Amino acid sequence: MGTRGWRLGAVVGVAVLAAICASGSEVPEQVRTVSDDGPLPVDRYQATPQDARRAERASALLVRQCMAGRGHPGFPLDPRYPTDPLVVVSVSTSYGVVDLAAARRWGYGWDPAGKPAVAEPRGRRMTAAEFADLPACNDEANRRLMRGIDEQNWLYASTRAIEVDKAVKSDPRLRAAWDAWSRCVADQGFTRYPDPTAAYTDHAWQRSSDGNTQHSQRERATAVADVLCKRRHHTVELWHTVKAELQTADIAQHRAGYTTALRHLLTYRANITDVLQTLG
Prior knowledge:
By secondary structure, the protein is mainly alpha-helical. It has helices at residues 10-20, 49-69, 100-106, 128-145, 151-154, 156-170, 172-187, 196-200, 217-233, 235-253, 255-279; strands spanning 3-4, 25-27, 88-89, 91-93.
């Protein structure tokens, strides 16, 4: 869920990206194939990718200040670690592959010549002494950005999203839509998957360590059938509609919790702004 790696903003970014990507299957960053059918009701209660970027910058500034106080002046905002760790990148996808041109060319993967999923750190490699003090400074930065926020309710909307997602997947309208899509794909000679997520995550596509697939002829043909059947049966549109309806109902039923979550989110954004204005 979300982008994970050894970056200074990770302490705060984990919380932010957990809110963004609380539901759906995990797939590599380059394979962001979600159809944009407009905003969903719960969106206003959750952090955005822009929040994550601003939080990473604010966290880096706070860490640099903390490190200077611990005898490490000139600590870079975006350092490399003493040894390069494994970086795992994933992002949620709600509807599977929806881009026909991409499906024809790359199946359920992406162009291997595309840009890297995670930008390399731009700063110098930190020293062993700096690395030893980094966890404490990360904790200090996190406490500053989370000031005034009840962490138990911080991800309330994301917690509710898990329950809502279960209801969405069991909704009879969506089950019927998935069944129509499944029959359509099978009628073209491909596996009868229970839903689009199962097609996307089929182990037959042999994803490598970076998450990309093999782009086999079978994979690409399946992905094309997947997209065409979604279009024929308006699968994504109905899926989006059901999700929006159930989210609206959940917000109405748990108004107090969502209101508190929104207040915490606004506090978080204000904390970020304060740090950026002070240190940026």
